[in-house]
Amino acid sequence: MLQRFPAGHRTRKPLFTVDRILPVPQQTREALIDLYFDQDEDSQQEARDDMENKDCLVRTYLGERESAEEQESMVYSSLRNFPLRLNMMEDNGLDTAAMAKETAVGLAIMHWQAKIDAMDVEFVLGSSATWDHHQQPVLFHDLSAKPHTVKASKTVNLKRRPVHLWIFDFDKASEINFTIHDVDAKLVPAFLGNDPYYPMPHVDKELWDGFSGTYIMASEIILRNNKVDEDVLSLPKRFLNEVVRRAEENRAWDEADNILFAD
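Above: the chain's sequence. Below: its structure in token form.
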């Protein structure tokens, strides 16, 4: 593969394999409008006709529920980056346990395979084009692939689009070392400082247990496969323990008790 590049461009470096994330299908968008927008018929039709609402990716907020007051009064007005909170997923029969486990695997890959802190990444539901399985694009790691052209107009179906959980927005992520320092100083703050994509024990203990168990299992598989030193294998568990400890500290912190007034 390297021999296909000019002589001055054969250094091996990390790269991203990227894909375009398509919006969730029209039927899903209309269902969100029906459920969560103003119930006035004219307002609903206006929302369906709004071209900006076609750009709909759904943020999966597994770590947050709407309060009772919010459930009664919240009316949404845009489908862009739509915040689907845990209670909304449950109300609509989504498999939150499976989604939590998929999120855990994604986080483990970012931490222990890609070696990044996952600062400010986003987890969203979006769709993708359907490929003719004989003409799927060849990934970069397939070194046996020969140069070829994919005729997208004949091999890609943009109307039949499955919905997936996607991760994107890596611009604030930074590289980590496999040390206790980077777990404490990078991974934990990135986790707790992000939007509530991750389950939390004080929100749903059962969901947290499924998430954390899957994270530990996926992390160990990745690390053992990469033949790391034995002491590195304890870092994923330390990460989760620190997340729980600091989250409890943050919840116990009372802003009113920590305001200092000048004399």
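The chain is about 40% helix and 10% strand.
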